[in-house]
Please model this.
Amino acid sequence: MKTSARNTLAGTIRRITKGAVNSEVLLATSGGDEIAAIITNGSVDAMGLKEGMKLMQW
Model:
């Protein structure tokens, strides 16, 4: 899996809402919290992010 050198968190992608330039990515953690992040559409595509994908902490 590709990853960025930025912060990483473990969880499951609940929803990706793409806009014209950026996407909102909603991540559900194993503790039940949800975190929203705004990243570029290019980053979503480059990392291959998909709803339901499990992300592991490095």
Q: What stands out?
A: The CA atoms of residues 11 and 29 lie 4 Å apart. The domain at 11-50 is CATH 2.40.50.100 (OB fold (Dihydrolipoamide Acetyltransferase, E2P)).
